[in-house]
Amino acid sequence: MSFILPPLPFSTNALAARGMCQETLELHHGKHNQAYVTALNGLIEKNPSLQGKSLEELIRLSRGNPELTPVFNNAGQHWNHSVFWQSLSPTGGGIPGNFEKRLIAEFGSVDKFKADFKTASTTQFGSGWAWLVLAGDGKLKITKTGNADSPLANGEGKVLLVLDVWEHAYYVDFRNRRPDFVDNFLAKVANYEDAAQKLQSA
Ligand SMILES: [Fe+2]
């Protein structure tokens, strides 16, 4: 069975007033994410040993295997984007009370959490991702990965929130200003309600 690109959980113009325009989402979801899905399906079609496996299984079995680098890149990018869409919201930026308390308890303040997340996002050299995860020791952790890697792939923890910091994520709206894109995400777009639900169900 082939993988498919699920629709966005909101319309392509739903975030336009919050700094992520329709063109960005049409390109990012409809072209970039679709291209990873199409490429992954092509790779699976040519390799029977990969058939019938879940996306997560494909990511884990291909990580670190030089012969399966294209599988890892495309499966990883599809998974990362799937979680990224959940991390965006047309009512983003509002932090639920319990989640806010947890952020303050672990980072000292919401501002410190945002500052640390911004540092991870802006210091990821080249293409990659910034993540808030629930680590194996039960603590919240901010981390970053390059290219298609992720906390699912490297075992760093359960993902609660993610920001795509590939240039294709922000160039239409913010040109080369990644720090402004990160600030805007944390203030107006980040789906902290989804993060809080993921934490609760962990
Ligand atoms: Fe992306």
Explain this structure.
By secondary structure, the chain is mainly α. Helices cover 54% and strands 10% of the residues. The protein has helices spanning 22-46, 55-62, 69-86, 97-107, 110-123, 151-154, 167-174, 178-189, 192-200; strands spanning 128-134, 140-146, 158-164. The chain has a three-stranded antiparallel beta sheet with strand order 2-1-3. Helix 1 runs antiparallel to helix 3 (69-86), helix 2 packs across helix 3 and helix 5 runs antiparallel to helix 8. The chain is globular and about 50 Å long. The model has no long low-confidence stretch (mean pLDDT 98). Bound molecules: fe (ii) ion.
At a glance:
The protein is mainly alpha-helical. It has helices at residues 22-46, 55-62, 69-86, 97-107, 110-123, 151-154, 167-174, 178-189, 192-200, and strands at 128-134, 140-146, 158-164. The protein has 9 helices and 3 strands, in the order H-H-H-H-H-E-E-H-E-H-H-H.
Please give the structural blueprint.
Elements: H1 22-46, H2 55-62, H3 69-86, H4 97-107, H5 110-123, E1 128-134, E2 140-146, H6 151-154, E3 158-164, H7 167-174, H8 178-189, H9 192-200
Antiparallel strand pairs: 1-2, 1-3
Helix pairs in contact: 1-3, 1-7, 2-3, 5-8
